[in-house]
Amino acid sequence: MTRTLVHAVFETIAICCAGVAAYDWTRLQHAERMNQAIVAASVDPREHRANDDAPQVRLARATALSKAGAYDAAARLYDGLIHEDRLDDLGRTALFDIGNMYLREGGGEGATGTIRSLAMIGEAKARYRMLLRAAPDDWDARYNLERALWLAPETHSASDEPDVKEQHNVKLRDPQSKDLP
C-alpha cells in the first residue's frame, strides 16, 4: 500500500514538472520568435511581417525608423504605443523615445528652421511632462526636460507681467510706524 502511494505521489510530481517544463518551453519559443521579429524590424524597419502586431516589435520598428530619419512614420508608431489613461513600461519607453526624437529633430543639426525647431522642442517638452506625470521618479526624463527647457525657455506672456507704472509706483511705510519691531 505504501509503495503504491509513493509511486502515485512521484507520478503526480513528475506530471507537474513536465507541465511546468512544457509551459516554459512554449514561453521560450514565443520569446525567440519575438526576438527574431525585433531584430528583423531593427534591420529593415520598412518591411512588414506577420509578427509585427506585437508592441515590442512596433517599438523596435519605431526606434529603427527614428534612427533612419523617418520621423513621421516613427511618431505614428510611437503614438500607437502610448495610452494616456494607463501607461505601462512599454508606453513609458515609447514616450521617452518620442520625446528624444523630437528633441533631436528640433535641437540638432538637422533642424530645418527656428519655427520648426521650437515646435519640435515644444512637443518634446510635452512628452517628457506626460512621462513625468506617470513616473515622477524618471531622472532621465527630468534631465531631458531640463535640456529642452534650456534650448527653448518658456516665457510668461505680457499679461502676466505687472504694468510699468505699477512697478514704479512703490509706496513706502511711514517711518514713524508703531507696528515695526
Mean pLDDT: 79
Q: Ends: how far apart?
A: 97 Å
The CATH topology assignment is: Serine Threonine Protein Phosphatase 5, Tetratricopeptide repeat
**Which structural class is indicated by helix and strand composition?**
mainly alpha
Rounded radius of gyration (Å): 29 Å
What is the CATH class name? Answer: Mainly Alpha
Q: How would you sum up the global shape?
A: elongated
Order of helices and strands: HHHHHHH
| Separate helix tally | 7
CATH superfamily: Tetratricopeptide repeat domain
Fraction of helical residues: 55-70%
Strand content: under 5%
> Based on DSSP secondary structure assignment, what is the total number of beta strands?
0
Ranges where pLDDT stays below 50 over 5 or more residues in a row are none
The count of domains is 1
Could you describe the largest sheet, including whether it forms a barrel?
none
Gross CATH architecture = Alpha Horseshoe
